[in-house]
Write a structure and sequence with these properties.
By secondary structure, the chain is mainly beta. It contains no helices and eleven strands. The protein is globular and about 40 Å long.
């Protein structure tokens, strides 16, 4: 079982930066793929970024490439999402998610991730 707690959200002006953190519990963190998703009001949840268990592979939605960076610290059981050059359209609740240990599948699909955090609000003002 993995429990996830996000933090770091808040209000920021367009062009600004935020770093989200997701702290995990459980003994299997170093063997799971971690993902970030977001959901804006009235919209479906969408993929943001993912990182494999070792950190050697990262994946991004096209609209986030070059602006967002996902990383992880397995010793701290934490995954991060550094968000730069934020835009008002980045406003959403951001969720982190964890796969099963060594779970394979499409990292951009929410179905890969059985474990989810409660979300953290990011609001970007224009």
């Amino acid at each position: 079982q993995v429990q996830l707690v996000e933090s770091g959200g808040g209000l920021v002006q367009a062009g600004g930066s935020l770093r989200l953190s997701c702290a995990a519990s459980g003994r299997t963190f170093s063997s799971v793929t971690m993902g970030w998703f977001r959901q804006a009001p009235g919209k479906e949840r969408e993929f943001v970024a993912a990182i494999n268990w070792s950190g050697s592979n990262t994946y991004y939605a096209d609209s986030m490439k070059g602006r967002f960076t996902i990383s992880r610290d397995n010793a701290k059981k934490t995954v991060y999402l550094q968000m730069n050059s934020l835009k008002p359209e980045d406003t959403a609740v951001y969720y982190c998610a964890a796969s099963l240990p060594y779970g394979g599948g499409v990292v951009r699909s929410a179905t890969l991730y059985p474990y989810w955090g409660q979300g953290t609000q990011v609001t970007v003002s224009s």
